[in-house]
Amino acid sequence: MADEEKVVLLTQEAYDKLKKELEWREGDYRSEIAERIAAARAEGDLSENGGYQAAREEQGKNEGRVNELTVKLRNAKIMQAPKAGTVGNGSVVTILLAGREKTYVLGSRDIAVATQHEVISPESPIGAAILGAHAGDEVSYKAPNGREITVTIKEAKPFEA
């Protein structure tokens, strides 16, 4: 499966924020860059015009981000977080790890725009270990360094924006 066809799981709020960013990049921001290019072009000699070169570079970055957002939004699936107590995509999970309590959102990195919590992927070692677990469960996973790490699920609740 090509990267472009990969389903992107998003909360409704993350989807809305990415859509708003896309609209801005395709509208006002694209126009602003075009105006800067036109103004720099009017100054003459483009080969030694730093403003022109910078605006063209910014235009390229913007178009790349527009393409990235277009693909993500086209392949987006709005996820419904599981009920409280069960860890799944879209859960806010509080765990006890190495004696410290930490709170994460389990899901795609793209939902980070909609939360102040750190996001962990369900494909990561820790994400795969806690996926499907319940509050009170103790699960373990193998860290990239080969160590076996035990995690206690303290709380799991649906993500709410």
UniProtKB/TrEMBL annotation:
Residues 9-78 form the Transcription elongation factor GreA/GreB N-terminal domain. Residues 55-66 have a biased composition (Basic and acidic residues). GO terms for biological process: DNA-templated transcription elongation; regulation of DNA-templated transcription elongation. Residues 84-157 form the Transcription elongation factor GreA/GreB C-terminal domain. Keywords: DNA-binding, Elongation factor, Protein biosynthesis, Transcription, Transcription regulation. One of its GO terms (molecular function) is RNA polymerase binding. Necessary for efficient RNA polymerase transcription elongation past template-encoded arresting sites. The arresting sites in DNA have the property of trapping a certain fraction of elongating RNA polymerases that pass through, resulting in locked ternary complexes. Cleavage of the nascent transcript by cleavage factors such as GreA or GreB allows the resumption of elongation from the new 3'terminus. GreA releases sequences of 2 to 3 nucleotides. Belongs to the GreA/GreB family. This is Transcription elongation factor GreA. It comes from Bifidobacterium avesanii. The gene is greA.
